[in-house]
C-alpha cells in the first residue's frame, strides 16, 4: 500500500507540536441514534501497521459504541496549537471488540492493550462510565492482566476517505482537500479557506 | 434568568487557561444531510447577554449552515489543556443571519460584527470557502464597513441543554452531568468517568 499524501503533513504537524502532550488528542464526532451529533476528546494511538487507519481505544460500555454501531461514519477534528493548523478527517469506523473474528485485528487489539500504561489499563476495570457515581472502592480494583485485554476493551479503527487540511498561518490561509476515490487513489485540491 | 450551575466551572476554566489563546476555541459537531457527523474548530465569542447561549460566528456560505438548517442540535467539545478538563455541551443552534426577523437578535449580530478585528471581518469578503482556490486578489479585497455586517455574516446561538464536565485531574477522575428540564431547571449529578 502507498501512504496517503496527507500523511506527511500530519507527521510533520505531530513532530512540530510534540512538546505539547495535547497534540496527540483530537475530537471524534459521531451521530446518536436520535440523529443528533456527539463529540468527545480521544487519544491518538498511532496508525494500524502499513495502513492509513487511525487507532483509538475505548470502553465497550461507552455511548460511542452504540453510536458507531448505528452510524459508522465519523469525523475527527484535530487542531495543532503550535503550528495553528487543523486536520478534519472523515472516515469509517470499525470496532474491534473481544468478539471480532479477524485474527489479524484481534492481534492488533491485543498489542494495543499491551502497550498501554497501567494507568490507562486500569480504567477498563472502573465502574460503568456515565452511571451514578460508584463508591471509591470501585475505582481502586486490582490491576488487570497486562497481556490479555479485558472484554470491554475495544480498538477502534478509523479509515479516512476525506481530509480537510487548514493552515491559519498562510497569507491569507491555506486549505487543501484530499479525497479518496473507490480505487483508493487520493485526489488533492487547493480550495479557498 | 438565573445562571446555569455549570457556568461558574466554565468561567473558572476560562480564567485558569487564559494564558493559552486556544482555550477560546472549541470543536462544534453537526450532522450532514446524509446523516454523518461533521466536526470543526470555531472560536467562542462569549455568551449572549443575560443568557446561557454561546455565541459563534460563521459564514453563510460554509457547510455548517446547511447542516444546522437540517439538524439544529449539535455538540460542542471543549478541552482545556492547562487544567485537563473537558466540557461537552449538547444544545440547539439558532442561525441569526441577515434576514432574521427578531430585532433584538439582529442587534446582537450587529454588535458582534462591530467587536471583531479587521482581520476577522475581512474573511467574510474572501472568495467562496471550499471552492477551488481563487486568485490572490480575491483575498485582498477592501475592508468591509466595520459598522454594518455583510450579508453572509452569521451569528450562531448555541443553547445548552446538557453539559458533561470531565476533570482528568481527580482521584480517580471526576465527571458531572448537568441536565436542563423543560421548565429550564438544571439537574446536577455525579457520574462515573
Ligand atoms: C484528554 C482526554 C483524552 C481522552 N481519551 C479518551 C480515549 O482515548 N478513549 C475514550 O474512549 N475516551 C477518552 N476520553 C474520554 C472521552 O472524552 C469521553 O468522556 C468518554 O469516551 C465517554 O464518551 P461517550 O460516552 O460519548 O462514548 C478522553 C477525555 C479527555 C479529556
Ligand atoms: C483555530 C480555528 C478557529 C476557527 N474559528 C472559526 C469560527 O469561529 N467560525 C467559523 O465558521 N470557522 C472557524 N474556523 C474554520 C473552521 O474550522 C472550518 O474550516 C470552517 O468553518 C468551514 O467549516 P464548514 O464548511 O464545515 O462549515 C476556525 C478554524 C480554526 C483552525
TrEMBL record, chains A, B:
<dbReference type="InterPro" id="IPR024015">
    <property type="entry name" value="Pyridox_Oxase_FMN-dep_Alr4036"/>
</dbReference>
<dbReference type="Pfam" id="PF12766">
    <property type="entry name" value="Pyridox_oxase_2"/>
</dbReference>
<dbReference type="GO" id="GO:0010181">
    <property type="term" value="F:FMN binding"/>
</dbReference>
<dbReference type="InterPro" id="IPR024624">
    <property type="entry name" value="Pyridox_Oxase_Alr4036_FMN-bd"/>
</dbReference>
<protein>
    <submittedName>
        <fullName>Pyridoxamine 5'-phosphate oxidase family protein</fullName>
    </submittedName>
</protein>
<feature type="domain" description="Pyridoxamine 5'-phosphate oxidase Alr4036 family FMN-binding">
    <location>
        <begin position="4"/>
        <end position="96"/>
    </location>
</feature>
<dbReference type="InterPro" id="IPR012349">
    <property type="entry name" value="Split_barrel_FMN-bd"/>
</dbReference>
Amino acid at each position: 500500500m502507498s501512504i496517503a499524501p496527507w500523511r506527511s503533513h500530519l507527521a510533520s504537524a505531530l513532530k512540530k507540536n510534540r512538546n505539547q502532550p495535547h497534540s496527540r488528542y483530537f475530537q471524534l464526532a459521531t451521530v446518536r441514534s436520535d440523529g443528533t451529533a456527539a463529540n468527545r476528546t480521544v487519544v491518538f494511538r498511532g496508525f494500524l501497521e502499513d495502513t492509513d487507519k487511525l487507532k483509538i481505544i475505548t470502553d465497550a460500555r461507552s455511548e460511542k459504541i452504540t453510536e458507531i454501531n448505528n452510524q459508522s461514519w465519523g469525523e475527527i477534528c484535530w487542531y495543532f496549537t503550535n503550528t495553528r493548523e487543523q486536520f478534519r478527517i472523515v472516515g469509517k469506523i470499525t470496532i474491534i471488540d473481544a468478539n471480532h473474528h479477524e485474527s489479524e485485528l484481534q492481534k492488533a487489539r491485543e498489542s494495543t492493550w499491551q502497550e498501554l500504561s497501567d494507568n490507562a489499563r486500569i480504567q477498563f476495570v472502573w465502574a460503568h462510565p456515565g452511571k451514578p457515581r460508584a463508591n471509591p472502592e470501585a475505582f481502586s480494583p486490582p490491576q488487570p492482566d497486562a497481556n490479555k485485554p479485558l472484554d470491554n476493551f475495544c480498538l477502534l479503527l478509523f479509515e479516512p476517505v476525506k481530509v480537510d487540511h487548514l493552515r491559519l498561518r498562510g497569507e491569507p490561509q491555506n486549505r487543501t482537500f484530499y479525497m479518496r476515490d473507490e480505487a483508493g487513489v487520493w485526489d488533492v485540491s487547493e480550495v479557498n479557506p
